[in-house]
From TrEMBL:
It comes from Triticum urartu. The chain crosses the membrane at residues 78-95. This is Uncharacterized protein. PANTHER family: OS04G0465800 PROTEIN (PTHR38543:SF1). It comes from the Eukaryota. Keywords: Membrane, Transmembrane, Transmembrane helix.
Length: 145
């Protein structure tokens, strides 16, 4: 699997290309690119992050099982949007509205991201994350193991 830098570079360059193809940033602008890139970068790896956090708990079977369960449930191209898509879409839509009002975001028409747009960006980020993971996955056929 590639590291976080490759995920971030791939997502940001893909988002910039989509923004350019969409023409002017109204359909896919920097705001969309940030949500897409964040979910392609960290999104499905939240399970691995939870597993890492569980490693700091006292070494008990319950802590290890909780970390393994989080990794198995979230680190999947379709389970991540299905399990965390709606809560994260609501959070991102709320953050979009708050940050736009505070002047921290530059949206072309001053329009915030809807929950539907956020959910679709979460799903797209998850799929592009796993596309990159599988692109760099070493096959057993190639290595002879």
């Amino acid at each position: 699997m590639p590291g976080p830098g490759a995920h971030l570079l791939y997502a940001l360059s893909g988002g910039a290309a989509l923004s350019r193809l969409a023409g002017g940033g109204r359909r896919f602008g920097p705001h969309h690119c940030a949500v897409y890139a964040f979910n392609a970068f960290l999104g499905p790896d939240l399970g691995a992050f939870a597993e890492w956090l569980a490693s700091f708990l006292p070494s008990t079977p319950a802590a290890a099982a909780a970390g393994d369960l989080a990794m198995a449930a979230i680190h999947h191209p379709f389970y991540y949007p299905l399990l965390l898509g709606l809560p994260l879409a609501c959070l991102y839509a709320w953050l979009s509205r708050r940050m736009l009002r505070a002047g921290l975001l530059d949206a072309p028409a001053g329009v915030v991201l809807s929950r539907r747009q956020c959910f679709l960006l979460i799903a797209a980020g998850s799929l592009s994350h796993f596309f990159l993971d599988h692109l760099f996955e070493v096959s057993n056929v190639v290595t002879g193991w």
